[in-house]
Amino acid sequence: MADAFLEKVEEWVEQSKVAIRADVVHEKLVKMGYRGSARSTRRAVNAAKTAWKAGKRRTYRPWIPEPGRWLQFDGGEGPRIGGRRTWLFCAWLSWSRFRVVIPVWDCTLGTLVACLDTALRRIGADVCPDGQREDGRRRAHRRDPGASSADGRRGPALRLPVVSCVPCDPEPKGGAEATVRIAKAGLVPTSANLLSVYDSFAELADACLTWFDTVNSRSLRATGQIPASRLDVERTTLHVLPIGPWRSRWARDDWSARTAP
User: Which range of residues forms the domain containing residue 25?
Assistant: First the structure.
């Protein structure tokens, strides 16, 4: 009964961007001589909406990272120790899927820079070469001024740009969030994992090291390989780390010397 009116139904669906209701469509069709039931109208409207969504749906392309190009990091709330909140700094190399988790007391800029330095030393190399390009899946986004001020603090020969993920792009952003979710599932005491409460921050730090060794030494279902083994391959594309850690005064003096007229 509705076949003769399908083109009109599709026109109304297109015009309303699938917002039109089936009862409104039925009333309009009845005025045009439609003799079918309201149930038949609902079926025709649902079919038209499904077809419209299939043609208008955003097509996601898989994000394929390159070795040595991306170190993503995020943070999540950790377990409470003596009633005080803790945080878990979580980072992963997107290609090798090598993960690092570091417990901290706060989320200040100084803590972030220290965590980045520690994470890179656990990885054993520096990522993001100087002059790195941003591909189409990492467009420029609103950046935190504090994060921007942390750029270039790796030393005179190395530069680590901090680039914000595009929040509406789940392909490149989901890996860091998954790392936080996996870390919290294995480190934060809940009724699901039956973990005991941590008595001290040192106990939490030891648990994070154990988690670090476990997740990086087991085969992943997605790749069928061990992250630690893939890291050996990815290290061939990474920079060599400086011997000493970053020092704020040394970096500031060095930057002044390079920018002096």
Answer: 3-56
